[in-house]
């Protein structure tokens, strides 16, 4: 895989020309910035409005501060918190420092990791007594939320609302699965399948503490890889945490950049 070419393709398809990621969402380019605005008023929209933020920018030292101020005006006029998603290869080189100076708060960085689906194993190996079920309805979403709240220790009501809205409005654009040990949900993950792109995004992979180290994360990656390849997606993409990065590297993913969310709260 030519990592520079794939990163350029990712920037074009998933950032500069990004499709809306859910119902009630508007993606628009304003000058050298592409932003997503999600409001609660659109048909089938997520109740809390979904994700708001800057997906891509191509700025320089002369234009950056004005562009930052413009995005603050846009989102704060709507009363919305928003995120500026900064990649390590974005310009200008001091964009992160400018955002902090403008009142943004950085969150933990993640690593953009990508692999060709054809190069990954789709062999599904599960521990004895564990099975995977596809998430297709509200009951499945509740099982996912139960796993995530145990795995990450945070409330996942926003993810629950968003997934329910996606399943109702565009079920072909998302896939999710839960691993059950008997009737107990022990691991879960979802996958975004943006139409018109070559990238399937892996999100929310988590396992409850007592079941870690048994290959469930790896099994969920294989499950989603098989499904993405069947639907014609060439690449698998992950914003990897420090915990998942070593596993993904062993599976064949390569590191293409780092990404840090900078959050502005009105």
From TrEMBL:
Residues 130-266 form the N-acetyltransferase domain. InterPro entries: Acyl_CoA_acyltransferase, GNAT_dom. This is GNAT family N-acetyltransferase. It comes from Streptomyces niveus.
């Amino acid at each position: 895989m030519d990592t520079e070419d794939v990163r350029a393709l990712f920037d074009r398809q998933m950032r500069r020309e990004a499709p809306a990621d859910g119902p009630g969402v508007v993606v628009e380019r304003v000058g050298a910035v592409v932003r997503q605005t999600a409001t609660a008023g659109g048909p089938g929209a997520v109740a809390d409005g979904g994700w708001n933020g800057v997906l891509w920018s191509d700025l320089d030292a002369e234009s950056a501060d004005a562009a930052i101020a413009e995005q603050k005006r846009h989102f704060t006029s709507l009363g919305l918190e928003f995120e500026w998603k900064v990649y390590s290869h974005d310009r200008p080189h001091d964009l992160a420092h400018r955002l902090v100076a403008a009142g943004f708060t950085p969150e933990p960085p993640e690593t953009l990791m990508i692999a060709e689906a054809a190069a990954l194993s789709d062999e599904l190996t599960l521990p004895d007594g564990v099975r995977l079920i596809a998430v297709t309805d509200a009951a499945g979403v509740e099982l996912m939320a139960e796993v995530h709240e145990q795995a990450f220790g945070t409330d996942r009501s926003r993810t629950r609302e968003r997934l329910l809205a996606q399943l109702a409005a565009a079920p072909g654009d998302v896939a999710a699965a839960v691993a059950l040990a008997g009737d107990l949900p022990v691991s879960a993950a979802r996958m975004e399948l943006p139409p018109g792109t070559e990238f399937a995004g892996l999100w929310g992979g988590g396992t409850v503490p007592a079941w870690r180290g048994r290959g469930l994360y790896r099994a969920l990656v294989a499950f989603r890889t098989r499904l993405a390849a069947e639907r014609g997606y060439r690449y698998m993409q992950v914003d990897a945490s420090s915990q998942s990065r070593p596993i993904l590297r062993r599976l064949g993913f390569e590191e293409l950049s780092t990404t840090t969310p900078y959050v502005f709260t009105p």
